[in-house]
Amino acid sequence: MAEESIIVAGEVVVDLIAEPGGRYRPVPGGSPANVAVGLSRLGARTQLLARLGSGAFHRLVHEHLRGNGVLLDYAVDADEPQTLAVVSVDDAGHARYDFYADGTADWQWSPDELPDPLPDGTLALCTGSIAAARQPGSPALLQLLRREHERARASIVLDPNIRPRLLDEPRSTRAYWNTLIELADIVKVSDEDLAWLDPGFETEETVRDWADRGPALVVATRGDAGVFAVTSEGVEVSVPAPAVEVVDTVGAGDAFTSGLLDGLRLADLLGAAGRGALTKISAHQLEHILERAIEVAALTCTRQGADPPAASELERTGPA
Fold it and tell me: For the whole model, what pTM was predicted?
């Protein structure tokens, strides 16, 4: 029997972190890569489906991913360079990203580079952020999502994590994400993403609307205000955020996604066998899973950079 695993598809960005004296320290990141690392640290067998760029940062990226236990069986060693992001953090710990992304490896997917079908034992396919919506490679990822949605074996998980400056004009990008949402079983989205994707509507209103359009579960993170979630059966849960000493928020949303997916995995709510059970999840069980995911994100905020915790660091270690 094939080992169960979660596949994360998307970019690996090298973050150039500003340090005193005008120097920059290269740190592998990018939302999907951060999610994969977070899942692996929590104990989930995780594959990263990514195009890993050539050049000066190739070895750094490989060592980071393999050193964190992320499997690269389906990753592509690409000829193009790695995407770069210059990261600056304000006094409140909030990060700003300036990307150098033209012609880089992450957006050049072709259909023949993606597994067809996904390997047996795949519990979930998680994607989002830039690679899921940036040309020229996004149509290949959309084809993969449609194919796996029709096969209905792996749960389809989306985290938009929008970077507007790297995407097409707003109207077409919003229409594209509407298509992706209808293919998903689980959507995790930040309130900032919602404000851009569905301007003029309250977070709760949009989350309820999305939960009526296909996903079994939609979860919105709201920073200090905590988390709001709705299921396709109309179960609604709000969970507050704990007070922590914030160093910075880099990777916090990705850490939450890792914690959410891992909690669903531990509760047997992913994959073909878990799909029906997820639609029937109780408010109590969902609240427990969300509290654990918030703890994962909160611990990440107490550290510099995208540095998610291991399972051994969590108070909430498993299903309710």
Answer: 0.95
